[in-house]
Amino acid sequence: ITGAGHGIGRELAIKLAEMGCIVVCWDINKDTNLETKNAVLDCGGE
Fold this sequence. Notes:
single chain, 2 helices, globular
């Protein structure tokens, strides 16, 4: 998911992870992308 560090991209990454999808996050901002990655892992995503 491009733009996964914030907004719709972040919400989409989390929702897909909750559904059991393997999510690949990409964002220009490394810090917010890392936050999204951690949120994905926290909800059981991969």
